Automatic annotation (TrEMBL):
Residues of the Post-SET domain: 134-150
Molecular function terms, GO-annotated: methyltransferase activity
Superkingdom in the source lineage: Bacteria
Cellular component aspect of the GO annotation: chromosome
Name the UniProt record assigns to this protein: SET domain-containing protein-lysine N-methyltransferase
SMART domains hit by this protein: SET
Amino acid sequence: MTDPATPWHLVKKSTLHGNGVFAARDIPAGTQIIEYRGKRITPEQADDMHPVNPDDPFHTFFFSLSSGKIIDGGQRGNEARWINHACAPNCETQENASGKKVFVVALEDIPAGAELFYDYGLILDGRITKKLRSQYQCLCGAESCRGTMLALPKKKSGSGKKKKAGKPSK
């Protein structure tokens, strides 16, 4: 039996991009690993704040909720903000029933030491151009990589993921 006080994750340097979040121990499929935390803001506040870093204008820690509010992981955020994108992820994000919280959940059994990923599926306002796709280039290297962290146009159904509010943001 594993000690429930032992965290599921740890943050360290990623070979993919910047910091990453890794399994601190074996994580069974379906495990709620971590809540994505941060200050709740409006889309207008997100627009006013963006870009936070003019040297990297396409990077933020914004995460849209179905309620229309945005979680800003850059303010009062936690380690979940360091989870990187992959087109073939081992995790997904799930809102709780109230739509006020987002959790990162294991899609499969994840061995200790493996980096955690979810598909950002970024949504931007307006038309998605080739230039925009390249500005949000994906580096995951998965066989199924679509080359961008942006969401592809949905044929039907979709899910709320990290969303760009007004101006581009992560």
